[in-house]
Amino acid sequence: MFIKSEQKRLAYQMLVFDEVIKQGSFTAAAESLGHTKSAVSQYVSQLESGLSVRLLNRSTRQLNLTTAGVKLAKRSEQLLEVLSMTLDEMQSLEHDPTGRISITAPHAFEANMVTPIVAELCNEYPKLTPELAFTDERLDLLEHKLDIAISVGPQKDSSYQAILIGKLDSILVASPRYLARVGKLELSDLTMQTLVVLPWQQEAVLKGKQGQVLNFISDKTIKVNTSISAINCIKSGVGIGLVPSIFVQDELDSGGLLQLVPEFTGEVRDVYALHSYQKQLPLVMRRFVERLKAEFTQQNKLKNRRPE
């Protein structure tokens, strides 16, 4: 157990440890930090001694993290991020972020996620001039002079940085009006229903909890190009469709939409924030990404608390 005087040293020992991991050697870390190699080695040894665990298996060619080392490396990186964020916040008190910030995102993210977060940032930093482009097309960052692009699904290889924001599930839903017209819907009836289909759902399947597979195909389809269009079509009663649950949760709660065959779900798709900054994101962009991540986490918590 660290006593208070030792805790003061712990933070810097962890930062030295973080630099050793990032640089891959004591020598490189020493050059980066302006210490001697022996001093860096001593800091890490003191950290191991204070924690009573071995963090590194040292060899002449490489450093290998132990299980404890892997865990502490993550915490050390988080400590560095907190310190960097703190410095940015203090600097922003005198130098408020100003000027243009440009963000693109799919239409479905507009009302409940992106716009409210940007509004909060504008209240905190009144000198910002945001430009928001909502489209389900993937806009190139450099071509359209964008700071951040919110993108869903597999990403093409590129020089852009991709930050994982969260995940979107897919559930099968219909309106009470549609179900009143077609009657009770069985799994075997799916191919005879009118399906509202998005461009990335041409070969979609639903997977059951026991490993069963249900093809999302029919001779009767309505093709739309945005998730919002799909949701509106489904709400109007013209067909059934696969949509992310967080975008229709209010309708599910109110009974405006009903989930069908809940034991089957569609593809889970990753959501990314893409940017072209080679180093750390500017303060406002980091705030935006952090809050979008938090919103995804909050939405999933609320969804999991609701009764099936």
Strand and helix map with partners:
Blueprint: H1 4-23, H2 26-33, H3 37-51, E1 56-58, E2 63-65, H4 67-94, E3 99-105, H5 110-124, E4 128-134, E5 148-152, E6 161-168, E7 171-174, H6 176-182, E8 194-197, E9 205-208, E10 213-215, E11 220-223, H7 227-235, E12 240-243, H8 249-254, E13 258-259, E14 264-265, E15 269-275, H9 283-305
Parallel strand pairs: 3-4, 3-5, 8-11, 8-12
Antiparallel strand pairs: 1-2, 5-15, 6-15, 7-12, 7-13, 9-10, 9-14
Helix pairs in contact: 1-2, 1-3, 1-4, 2-3, 5-9
The counted number of beta strands is 15
The general outline is: elongated
- Radius of gyration of CA atoms, rounded to a whole number: 25 Å
Proportion of β residues?
Answer: 15-25%
Number of helices: 9
Order of SSEs, N→C?
HHHEEHEHEEEEHEEEEHEHEEEH
- Provide the low-confidence segments as ranges: none
Fraction of residues in helices?
Answer: 40-55%
- Report how far the terminal alpha carbons are from each other: 45 Å
Biggest sheet record? 5 strands, mixed
Mean pLDDT: 87
Q: Give the strand order, joined by hyphens, for the main sheet.
A: 4-3-5-15-6
Based on helices, strands and strand pairing, what is the structural class?
A: alpha/beta
Task: Note down, in words, how this protein is organized.
The chain has helices spanning 4-23, 26-33, 37-51, 67-94, 110-124, 176-182, 227-235, 249-254, 283-305; strands at 56-58, 63-65, 99-105, 128-134, 148-152, 161-168, 171-174, 194-197, 205-208, 213-215, 220-223, 240-243, 258-259, 264-265, 269-275. With 308 residues, the protein is α/β, with parallel strands linked by helices. A five-stranded mixed β-sheet has the order 4-3-5-15-6, with helices on one face.
